[in-house]
Amino acid sequence: MRPQAGRYDAIIVGGGIVGISTACVLAGRGLRVLLLERFTPAHEHGSSHGDSRMIRFDYEETVYVEMAARAFRAWEDLAKRLGKPVFRQTGICNLAPADAEVLETLETRLRDCGLPFERLAESSFARRFPQLNLPQLSEAIYQPDSAVLFADEVVRSLWDCAREDGVDARTETEVVSLLPGADSVEVRTSDGRTWSGTRLVLATGGWTGRWFDALGLDALGLDASLVVTRELLAYFPQAGPVPHEAGAMPNVIDYHTPDPFYCVPQVRVPGVKAGCHRTGRIVEADDPEEVDRANLAAVQDFIGRRCPHLSPDPVAVKHCLYTNSADYHFILDRHPEHDNVVLAAGFSGHGFKFGPVLGEILAARLFDERPPVDTSLFGLERFNRPGALKPRTLA
Ligand SMILES: Cc1cc2nc3c(=O)[nH]c(=O)nc-3n(C[C@H](O)[C@H](O)[C@H](O)COP(=O)(O)OP(=O)(O)OC[C@H]3O[C@@H](n4cnc5c(N)ncnc54)[C@H](O)[C@@H]3O)c2cc1C
Questions:
Q1: Residue ID of nearest Cα to ligand 1 atom 26
Q2: CATH superfamily label, 92-144+227-324
Q3: Which among 48, 278, 330 is the best mutation to test ligand 1's pocket, defined by most ligand atoms within 8 Å of the CB?
Q4: Buried b (16+ CB within 10 A) or exposed e, 122-152
Q5: Which atom in ligand 1 lies closest to the alpha carbon of residue 321?
Q6: CA of 274 to the centre of ligand 1 (A)
Q7: 226-266, pLDDT tens digit by residue?
Q8: 36 CB less than 6 Å from ligand 1?
Q9: Using one digit for the tens of pLDDT, what is the confidence trace for 28-37?
């Protein structure tokens, strides 16, 4: 194995939202960066594709609220750089029975964080949001700052920006082995080439489990196993005059069932994308896709009862991977034995909105600097005591 001429300051494996955002931050520091992606930007096998992702601030943990606010400013900067919008503000409605604890929790959190919100009873809700049907004795918490990010456009634009800024960004290049050393890392790709870098960021989404094994986390007493699920999402078209695109209606998270349903107004055509959070089948990331008919029927049923002006027949059914950590919090940390290797994983179905901030945090971890937010929730050491982990409860 002869290394390629020249060594990179940093190699990033994986070009989804996390890897490409990190590449942009590192290139902004004037570093020589190599990005290796097995497929192409915004491909459909992983987690960062599709027309939309929600930006929202309705989190129980303060760090995510801070990260969302910081990311929001970065998305505005990206829009300025590109000269076109990358998100559309929509607001969000969290729906639940009026006496549900989740509404109390959200209200308290939004108040504590100084974020504007309204609690709406059924009659005022119906006047405000004709697209949605709220059952009797239910209420909604509306938070106006939420938005819809144009996900695949964002990923492709970040790839363009990274290349413009000098990143050596390679598609259809699969990493097959990693060899971390004291002050360098060697990476071999499926085309038989070997690449050398001073530091490495692993951002391989649903394919990360094998690298955690190869990097010996288990042997270090860290049970950071990741569970990959293939989540189903379906697109429902507008069936009448009531408008349903982003800008005309809010994002929705519906807590009437133990597994919350959600819907996101579409960006390019009238209609919504809908799914049921964390109900996908457990898979290996390379398993063939297969539609879970029962899950699809449950989503159609949700649309039928909550969105009366949509056709319950989807125009498209798609899939996307969640890579779940045991507590649904992110893993953003240095490898305990190789401090030039940083691991980014476990985005558990809520990572996209934070892309630019994840890039900043990972760059800080890579250079042992203070990150822009408190990252104690995201450390590997929590997997020393997996029994003590407290899973997130909100979507
Ligand atoms: C249905 C659904 C809805 C969601 N909704 C939201 C939302 O509204 N808001 C939100 O914030 N988040 C949301 N998310 C979560 C968000 O999309 C993910 O957290 C995020 O996209 C994860 O990005 P990633 O870069 O970690 O993974 P990926 O995008 O999968 O990127 C990993 C990349 O690594 C590459 N790779 C893997 N192995 C190798 C290798 N050996 N060599 C080279 N490359 C490799 C893969 O090809 C892939 O491109 C949603 C996710 C899903 C599935």
A1: 205
A2: D-Amino Acid Oxidase, subunit A, domain 2 (3.30.9.10)
A3: 48
A4: eeebeebbebbbbeeebbbbbbebbbbbbbb
A5: 53
A6: 18
A7: 999 999 999 999 999 999 999 999 999 999 999 999 999 99
A8: yes
A9: 999 999 999 9
